[in-house]
UniProtKB/TrEMBL annotation:
Protein family according to the UniProt entry: Belongs to the TRAFAC class TrmE-Era-EngA-EngB-Septin-like GTPase superfamily. Septin GTPase family.
The keyword Glycosyltransferase is annotated on this UniProt entry: no
Name the UniProt record assigns to this protein: Septin-type G domain-containing protein
Disordered as annotated region, ranges: 53-75
Highest taxon, organism lineage: Eukaryota
Molecular functions per Gene Ontology: GTP binding
PANTHER family from the UniProt entry: SEPTIN (PTHR18884)
Residue ranges annotated for the Septin-type G domain, each copy included: 16-355
Keywords on record: GTP-binding, Nucleotide-binding
InterPro entries to which the protein is assigned, alphabetical: G_SEPTIN_dom, P-loop_NTPase
Length: 355
């Protein structure tokens, strides 16, 4: 079990975030785990988290093994399975022990780290892991709603759109891409968007020029619009998002995120980057998700569940009607007269003759 690491922060700063579940999805080696860590660990409101601490870099130039150790630390660590990481932005009395007097970290901010779909031969394998997890949260919640009591959509919205942990749905799925948008990315975002708010993110922008990132943003938005993929746009329409991307404005998806901390200034020509990379939009993305748009995010999450539930109810009704029709047909079906008559004739023919 991962240990919990406590941070110094204002204990009242994260109360408004409430319970929220996030996920990061994408190809292998696009920086999903590091993105999740940066999203959480640099959040001032976080009081504690269970991410394993990163090893500090060794800077002793006199140590012959320093360079070798740095290489080992930079080795890519692949996520092999779905992994939930918990962070706390508030303290509360544990709900399973209401007699307790001491508050404990609420573990209210959950980040689901997923294996990249390119780490296996069949990309559908790892993608199915994530979608099965999402579907299971819907099915578990639906099973707790009584089938004998009619519940309106408005009642579901009022009871589920809260920050007190009324469900375990994934509220936001950050879909990471790097240098290009692949056909597989388009189809996966289409499938995910039926049950989760999808926010595309361009990662590793420190390896791309500002112009390249801007062109990629425009390409991603135009392609997703043409393909009919419904991403979470933070209440901005596609035309406006495309205009913002073309003019270099920030504030909407896809967000450009750097996976490395900014390097200190250096006069060494070898340390100079040959291009100007795009602005890191992680602070803006985090502010939109956790502050300004958090209520709207929760509403869209519950709407997706309600739409899924409505389809399930309609499917069940169709199945019940089909079974009833089949029973009615069997009930009113004519008696098989001729086979019965033939059986009686055969029985009479085989009976012994009385002399």
């Amino acid at each position: 079990m991962a240990s919990t690491h406590y941070l110094l922060a204002n204990p009242c700063a994260g109360q408004n975030i409430g319970y929220l579940r996030l996920a990061v999805v994408g190809d292998s080696a696009v920086g999903k785990t590091l993105f999740a860590r940066q999203f959480v660990e640099t959040l001032p409101e976080v009081l504690s988290h269970d991410w394993e601490p990163l090893k500090p870099r060794r800077t002793n130039e006199d140590d012959d093994d320093a360079e070798e150790d740095d290489d080992d630390e930079d080795d890519y660590v692949q996520t092999q399975e779905l992994t939930e990481r918990f962070s706390s932005t508030m303290m509360e009395i544990p709900w399973d022990n209401m007699d307790a007097d001491d508050e404990a970290p609420a573990r209210n901010l959950v980040f689901l780290d997923t294996p990249g779909y390119g780490s296996v031969i069949d990309a559908r394998t790892n993608f199915a892991l994530f979608m099965n997890h999402v579907s299971q949260t819907f099915e578990e919640k639906n099973s707790k709603i009584s089938p004998f009591i009619e519940v309106t959509n408005n009642e579901l919205m009022r009871s589920l759109v809260t920050g007190v942990g009324a469900h375990k749905f994934i509220d936001v799925c950050f879909y990471l891409i790097v240098h290009r948008l692949k056909p597989l990315d388009i189809e996966y975002m289409r499938i995910i968007s039926e049950k989760v708010n999808v926010v595309p993110v361009i990662s590793k922008i420190d390896t791309q020029s500002e112009q390249d990132v801007q062109q990629l943003k425009v390409h991603v938005l135009k392609t997703l619009r043409e393909q009919g993929v419904s991403i979470y746009t933070f209440r901005i329409d596609y035309d406006r998002l495309i205009h913002m991307a073309e003019t270099g404005q920030q504030g909407g998806p896809p967000f450009a995120v750097s996976n490395v901390p900014p390097k200190p200034s250096s006069e060494d020509p070898l340390d100079q980057i040959p291009f100007t990379h795009a602005m890191n939009e992680l602070p803006l993305l985090r502010k939109l998700v956790l502050e300004t748009q958090i209520n709207n995010v929760r509403q869209f999450t519950v709407k997706k569940f309600i739409n899924w539930r409505s389809k399930q109810i309609a499917l069940q009704q169709q199945q019940m009607q089909g079974q009833q029709q089949q029973q009615q047909q069997q009930l009113h079906a004519p008696m098989p007269y001729f086979p019965v008559l033939q059986s009686l004739q055969d029985l009479a023919a085989s009976a012994p003759t009385i002399a």
